[in-house]
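ARCHIVE CARD
Drawer: 12
Card no.: 0347
Subject: one protein chain, sequence and derived structure
Cross-reference: see card 0346
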Amino acid sequence: MKVGEKAPDFTLVNQDMKKVSLSDYKGSKVVLAFYPGAFTGGCTKEMCTIRDEIADLEELNAEILGISVNDPFSNKAFHEENVLNFPLLCDYNREVVKLYDVYHEDFAGLKGYTVAKRSVFIVDVDGVISYKWVTEDPRVMPPYDEVKAELA
């Protein structure tokens, strides 16, 4: 997926087993924050930074959706432990990470284990990708100031 392209719609369950579609947020800016795995140091830091620095900024008028390949049960515990104020979506079939082309295969040397690359997309009110950031290195955090600037 590239900046300027229509963001593909998808439907995933959230941490409470409720179906959530990107199209549910039509007319709003949406931040898609893909993360490799719940309860890892980097992902905890990333989701808590988004909670503290972006999700609370109501003037940015944006919805945040965290997305990982975790199951809803792990994501629920991760969501509760970190008191996150946005939903975590469960791409346990790895469909959305492949749709957006943001995935690591054989992650951490584990053959057959596919996880999301740490990445951020902003989908504008018309459903078009207006911002994209992807890293190959899961230790690298997103440029939060850049994301806030793009939302502003």
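Annotation on reverse: The domain at 11-151 is CATH 3.40.30.10 (Glutaredoxin). The longest helix spans residues 41-53.
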